[in-house]
Amino acid sequence: MPPDLSRLIAKIRDAGVALDAWSETMKSLTDALGVAGAACIISNRTTGRVDWVCFSGLSADFRSDYVNHYAQLDPFTPLLSVDLGWTKLSECLPDAVLLKSEWYNDFVLCCGVRDILGARLVETPSHFATFGFHQQIGRRFSGMTAAILKDVAGPLGWATMRHIDRLFGPTPDETESNIIANGGAYYFHVRNGKDYPDETGKVFQSRQEALAHAAILAAELAQDGDWDGFVVSVTDADGSVIAQVPVAE
């Protein structure tokens, strides 16, 4: 029987509006999933560097080591994409590659982690956010993991987009002046090889409201297995991609 995730989803939404809520949210995610740790990594698409991280559990004490050194050696994160969905490290890279990886031997294993379930959950024009859930050596991911992640993917994507927008988006003055003047039209295309364009769009008073709508739409589509692997691609009136939200498996 699926667990009651209402409190967890409430914590995730808290992280979307309060920077200091992320640590508690990540801990709550690890508890719900029955894993030993988690990481949220926001990377800069222009520089390729990590601009913000939140680690919980086994890797929490190694945050600075990852940012300052191992992020550049990480072979797993670049392989993830919004289209790919949740992917296990053990199924993505062969042991022969991992055994030669400094990142895997001197960081992952030293943290006590055997496997990682990861996904690139959000993309914006300037950044992308990757989540990884860590299972400790000697244990396996539970059968409920995929079901829980499917239920929380929408709120987690919304909170992450809000967080990216708050940290790296337009200045408050610029954003507020544009909102007060006109609002804006946003379009929600559903894509995965096949393209289901949104020809009409919706008007929202802020980009954050549009992103929240995209997260809700992705969560609704996730209830129908026919949309697994698709993404909701959000564009503005000029056709610029604002974000891509996965329809979680």
What is this structure, in a nutshell?
Helix content is 37%, strand content 27%. By secondary structure, it is an alpha+beta fold.
Structural features, described:
The protein contains nine helices and ten strands. The strands form two sheets. It has a five-stranded antiparallel sheet. Strands 6, 7, 8, 9 and 10 form a five-stranded antiparallel sheet that branches. It is an alpha+beta fold. Helix content is 37%, strand content 27%. About 5% of the residues have low confidence. It folds into two domains: 161 residues, 2-Layer Sandwich (Beta-Lactamase); 72 residues. It is globular. A hairpin with a 1-residue loop joins β6 and β7.
Strand count, sense and barrel status of the largest sheet are:
5 strands, antiparallel
How many structural domains in the coordinates?
2
Q: What is the correct CATH architecture of the largest domain?
A: 2-Layer Sandwich
CA-to-CA gap between the ends? 18 Å
- The first-level CATH class of the largest domain is given as Alpha Beta
Name the helix and strand elements from N-terminus to C-terminus, one letter apiece.
HHEEHEHHHEEHHEEEHEE
The value of Rg in angstroms is 18 Å
Count of strand segments: 10
Which residues form runs of ≥5 with pLDDT under 50? 171-182
Indicate the mean pLDDT: 84
Helix content: 25-40%
CATH topology of the largest domain: Beta-Lactamase
Shape: globular
- Name the beta content range: 25-35%
Strand adjacency order, main sheet: 2-1-5-4-3
Provide a count of the helices.
9
Determine the structural class based on helices, strands and strand pairing.
alpha+beta
Determine the CATH superfamily of the largest domain.
Answer: Transcription factor LuxR-like, autoinducer-binding domain
